Amino acid sequence: MSKWLVKIQGYEYETNIDELKQWVIEGRVLPEDMIFRQGLGWRIAKEVPALREAFEEQRKRPPSQKETSSPPSLYQPVTYQSFQAEQYTLPTLSQRFRGFLLDQLSYGLFAFPGFLLLYVQAGTAKLQGLTLEEAITSSPYILMAIGFLISLGLNVYSTCTYGRTPGKFLAGTVVLDKESKTFLSYEKSVIRELLRVSIFVALFASGGRLFWHVLVLQAILGGWLVFSPERRQLYDLLLGVNVYDISEKAEKSQEAEEAPLGRLQTALRLIQLAWRLWRD
Q: Where in this chain does the record put each RDD domain (predicted)?
């Protein structure tokens, strides 16, 4: 019978699927606890298909029959060791790119009212023969700033609470602390989000003399991600965090991109896609 790991209050317990279901029914494992199994990776308990019936049964039990105690002392907490890193499935380059792009699109959606107002004011200036300085007010920029702060706050909150932003949810990945495999603190989430946004702004808003400097920086960041054995971005390395694959196809996706040639092929496809997006 395959072994399972469950993380409760920062500690890991080894068990099997039958006992894990019993813990769920008794209320000892909560829906937001993290569950690990080889080939499945780390996932939130409520998203594990094998535990759905157990959670349904737990919700139907009368309050008097629900347990609130911690797991039995027979299962002592497992201190995370470096050799366990192989159990955490790493994401593919495609997943990293999709998650990054979707997260940045969320900023565009929240800032869209500001961009729309800016476009309307610029069009009005053209029709009335006014200069842009005369027609454009500070309102569009205020709306953009508000949208940016709202999106930033939502991404930080979801990273701290659920371990992933909406973009990473769609990409099937989660952000965890490298050593403890827990969700990031508020401070780390804020710093990481600001660094990611800075890279995106440099990617699409660079020009003039800075163009080649930014291009070199992007090549360094992209090359590091392609050839890094843990597929960690430089800002993840600085913060001591990493992104992991928790999708149902995690193990197969990792094997497909394990060889350097597979990574290079994926990187070339992503470069072509990014070039088309930038050109359009």
A: 91-239
